[in-house]
Write a structure and sequence with these properties.
With 627 residues, the chain is of the alpha/beta class. It has five domains: 1-68 and 170-223, P-loop containing nucleotide triphosphate hydrolases (Rossmann fold, 3-Layer(aba) Sandwich); 80-168, no CATH class; 237-290; 313-525, P-loop containing nucleotide triphosphate hydrolases (Rossmann fold, 3-Layer(aba) Sandwich); 562-586 and 613-627, no CATH class. The strands form five sheets. It has a six-stranded mixed sheet with strand order 5-6-7-3-8-9, sandwiched between helices. A six-stranded mixed sheet has the order 14-17-18-12-19-20, with helices on both faces. Strands 2-1-4 form a three-stranded antiparallel sheet, with helices on both faces. A hairpin with a 5-residue loop joins strand 15 (403-405) and strand 16 (411-413). The chain is globular. The chain starts with a strand and ends with a helix.
């Protein structure tokens, strides 16, 4: 467990807002770590500091000598005048530059250069790298290598930036929301790629299936404290719940003790000044602990939906095409109350076009769409709302409604509503430009839901929202008294919410699938496997009779010698001691209290102990078979 990256007492302030203060942690070689924190607590800022792009106000970052970092940012910085090929292979690595030259020669069909560069590819053993690079580009659907960066969409730029980081094969991968703007097939491919990679990984993601399957450790940043969980997302949920319960029990106990101490302080004024200074010190500590409140705020989204009539939204033989692209053909459907539909399909198959047709932003080429008179759409768009960045948060919300009505008939001011959305009074008077990307998305969600819609359309609602907000949004959607359409690449989110799927298959075809995404995906995998089995021509080799084959003689079981028995007993004791030392070292390495030098020493000892355990366990197994 060699330490790759260490942050010691890191602090960062953004204007008047303290993002984090005096936090410390270490990333070790081979770990795959997820960072979880609420929006606005500085996750992206912290990653920028660790990657050397930003500096902390105080504290230091130590990178082990020679460790190569690859950083995928939420908003990638690419050279607009570069071609895709130039940007992806913008590297000092000789092997990568040779592959780049080879790809250029192929693109221009220059046979002479192809022959010359092929020789160099042989010398550098670059063919495996070329195959892997092509696989990465193909899986991320980066096919137009001569296209300029400034001609790409936002999603295409992010995929190019991701490919660039992966192709360079860094020892330490830092990824900030890598699944945003990837379709489901790409996410599943990236998931498998990161599971297999030998690179050490630190990432921020809201995709809980992705996190659960890729990461083996989670760092939670809350209230300027770092909590480490040595397990996946499911383990994190269980242990976090235990931590919250323990904290609450501790605060309750402190409050009960405080009552006793308060009585003593009131009854015995003389003792206070002479005999019991330790009681006074204890009183102050109890008072501080009893006043603690676990900041486990939740977003209350129980906004009243507008009244629904009998008729919702009805589509009759609807078709829509653009030049050279057929997106929807002869599609009919009647939406019903409380229905929750998920929409899946590759990029460019017509998902956003379908939403624009329903909301009358586009008109169909054929067929008709009828919308009930009582329908009130709430449309959360992928590209968000264009806030005036110079406007204050409270002013932006007051423009929509000064009061919000809830299911029970009660009313709430815009300020109170913002407070439920984790915007405390001091933040409400901040300018919108000071909010993080995730906070702006949360504010946008607030403005959509507070308009009392009864037909919600959510286009990629999970992008840039923290996991805590997503949990609450899911609970709200499950009990929402209206109709919901969700377009999302977040499989966990889809599985929890939707009743059935519209699967956009391309060429205008839409399948209505009765089940959530996981059921659909499992069925698709099963069908593909069946198709592959049917295509294979199974030829049964002729079996020749084996004549005069002698049965192997039964080996007599060897018994342990006297010395081997002593060795076996000794091994059991040695293994117990080594396991104890390993646990102590693990605890020490994960404490965050060690200097860089101590970390190196203890990590080297950890490697020695681990190797000794492996070696002695193997010998113990050999001897145990002879007992």
């Amino acid at each position: 467990m060699r330490p790759f990256l260490q942050g010691e007492n890191l602090s960062k302030r953004f204007g008047e807002l303290m993002l984090f203060e005096n936090i410390s942690f270490t990333i070790f070689e081979g770990q795959k770590v997820a960072l979880i924190a609420k929006n606005g607590t500085g996750k992206s800022t912290l990653l920028n500091i660790l990657a050397g792009i930003d500096n902390p106000d105080s504290g230091k970052v130590t990178l082990t000598n020679g460790v190569k970092i690859g950083y995928f940012e939420q908003i990638p910085k690419l050279e607009p005048e570069h071609t895709v090929l130039e940007e992806i292979f913008n590297s000092d690595n000789e092997k990568l530059n040779t592959v780049k030259a080879f790809e250029l020669a192929i693109a221009h069909n220059n046979q002479k250069e192809i022959a010359e560069i092929s020789t160099k590819m042989d010398e550098l053993n670059a063919w495996d790298a070329e195959v892997e690079i092509k696989q990465i580009l193909t899986q991320l659907k980066i096919l137009q290598l001569e296209q300029k960066i400034n001609e790409l969409s936002g999603g295409q730029k992010k995929r190019v930036a991701l490919a660039k980081v992966l192709i360079n094969k860094p020892e330490l991968l830092i990824l900030d929301e890598p699944t945003n703007h990837l379709d489901l097939d790409m996410i599943e491919w990236l998931e498998a790629y990161l599971e297999k990679t030998k690179s050490t990984l630190l990432m921020v993601t809201h995709d809980r299936y992705f996190l659960d399957r890729v990461c083996n450790e989670i760092i939670e940043m809350e209230d300027n404290t770092i909590y480490r969980y040595l397990g996946n997302y499911q383990y994190f949920l269980e242990k976090r719940d235990e931590r919250i319960e323990m904290h609450q029990a501790s605060v309750t106990k402190a409050k009960n003790l405080l009552r006793t101490e308060i009585e003593w302080m009131r009854r015995m004024p003389k003792a206070r000044s002479h005999k019991a200074k330790f009681r006074l010190d204890s009183f102050d500590e109890l008072k501080e602990k009893a006043s603690q409140q676990l900041k486990n705020e939740v977003v209350n989204l129980n906004v009243k939906a507008s009244r629904l009539g009998k008729k919702m939204v009805e589509l009759y033989e609807v078709s829509k095409s653009f030049p050279g692209v057929k997106l929807i053909e002869n599609f009919s459907y009647k939406f019903s109350r409380f229905e929750k539909v998920g929409i899946v399909g590759n990029n460019g198959t017509g998902k956003s076009t379908f939403l624009n047709l329903i909301t009358n932003s586009l008109q169909p080429d054929a067929g008709r769409i009828e919308i009930g008179k009582t329908i009130k759409f709430g449309y959360y768009k992928q590209d968000g709302i264009l806030f005036d960045k110079k406007e204050r948060v409270i002013d932006a919300v007051n423009k929509i409604a000064e009061f919000i009505v809830f299911e029970d008939g009660s009313k709430m001011t815009a300020s109170q509503m913002l407070n439920y959305f984790l915007f405390p009074p001091e933040t409400q008077y901040n300018f919108i430009e000071k909010l993080s990307g995730g906070e702006q998305r949360r504010l946008y969600l607030c403005t959509v839901l507070m308009q009392n819609p009864n037909f919600l359309i959510l286009d990629e609602p999970t992008n840039d929202l923290d996991i805590m907000t997503l949990n609450i949004l899911e609970e709200y959607l499950k009990s929402f008294a209206g109709c919901v359409i969700i377009v999302s690449h977040d499989r966990f989110f889809m599985d929890k919410i939707v009743d059935h799927l519209f699967v956009f298959q391309g060429d205008g075809k839409i399948e209505d699938f009765p089940g959530n995404y996981t059921i659909y995906r499992n069925k698709k995998i099963e069908e593909e496997s069946e198709k592959t089995r049917n295509q294979k021509q199974i030829s049964k080799p002729e079996t020749s009779k084996i004549r005069n084959q002698e049965k192997p003689k039964k080996r007599e079981k060897k018994k342990l010698s006297f010395n081997e028995k002593r060795e076996f007993e000794s091994l059991e004791k040695e293994l117990a001691k080594l396991e104890s030392e390993k646990k102590v070292l693990e605890s020490s390495l994960n404490s965050g209290d060690l200097s860089h030098e101590e970390l190196v020493q203890k990590s080297e000892r950890f490697s020695v102990v681990k190797n000794l355990i492996d070696e002695k366990e193997l010998r113990w197994l050999e001897l145990s078979e002879l007992i």
